[in-house]
Amino acid sequence: MLKIGEFQTLSVGREMPQGYYLMDEEENEVLLPRKYITDEMEFNSMVDVFVYVDSGGRDVATTEKP
Predict the structure, then answer these.
(1) Contact 19/37 with Cβ under 8 angstroms?
(2) Are 22 and 32 contacting, i.e. CB atoms less than 8 angstroms apart?
(3) Both ends of the chain: CA-CA distance in Å?
């Protein structure tokens, strides 16, 4: 389950023009916008992110500390 307002480790699931969709162990997805993607990230790699709700009500991940 994605935990809003917490850091968690998620896997890179798929790439889209807007960024990577990361997945938890239950295959729930959250967007990691392109500006946070690094060269080390690839399909199935694990990424430490903070998950939050943006102003549009969507769940979003960031590698930055809030």
Answers:
(1) yes
(2) yes
(3) 20
pLDDT tens digits along 5-54: 999 999 999 999 999 999 999 999 999 999 999 999 999 999 999 999 99
DSSP structure class, residue 2: -
Lookup: tokens for 23: 């997945």
Rounded-to-integer distance, Cα 4 and Cα 50, Å: 8
Q: What's the one-letter identity of residue 39?
A: D
Structure tokens at 43: 């399909």
Integer Cα distance of 11 and 42 in angstroms: 9
Tell me the β-bridge partners of 17: none
Contacts of 19 (CB under 8 A, 6+ apart): 31, 32, 33, 34, 35, 36, 37
